[in-house]
Amino acid sequence: MVSNPDPRPGRWVLPLVVLGMILFTWVWVNRLEPPAVEGTAGPSATTRSTTETTPAVDETTAGGDGTETPDETTPTTLLPPEIEVYLTNLAEDKAALAALVEELNAVNDAWENRDQTGVTFSETEAAMVAASERAVVFSEAVELHRPPEDVAGLTDAHQRVYESAAAVAEAAANTLAGLRAPDTGELRRAAVVEFRAAAASFEQQVDQISEIVMQGFGAA
Known about the structure:
By secondary structure, the protein is mainly alpha-helical. It has a domain at about 90-215: Four Helix Bundle (Hemerythrin (Met), subunit A), CATH 1.20.120. It contains six helices and two strands; from the N terminus they run αββααααα. A two-stranded antiparallel ribbon has the order 1-2. Helix 2 (about 80-110) packs antiparallel against helix 4. It starts with 12 loop residues before the first helix and ends with a helix.
């Protein structure tokens, strides 16, 4: 009988199979393409930022001789505080008067067309009383304004403004009186026309004051 030098010849089969699997796996993995890695911008990114600070440009232009000359700009006129306050008060008066004119016109139109609006005499009278009282308050506020004395012609111009404001108050009172008159509306209509004219004159006088102030400070 021939002796078997290896009593367990199948013991090498499993190691060979394992080794073959390892080699196959290594070859297969190395044949794969490397994964694409998306770059992310973070604090540690080395990409230089594309945002750059643009240096301030000096607003100058080169003249014919190569020298730089500053661009022409609109000069800013600084008015004294008391004049600023005075002009602000007049601007507020204009706004208040515009609202008053709109209110009284609406009341008068509603009464003229009372067949369509259905407004009553008592309602119209109460609205005109309120408008007349507001006109008085408006006139008194204008009277309290004190124009600066260091601007030539401003005192006389303000007197004309106040006279226009007083005419507004008087016309508003006449409108109420015309409503209460026993006529067919002629007095009321005439007073409304007078009221509108006085309001327009006030606005014109205020605009003239603004022109006087600008001329006095070299802004015109």
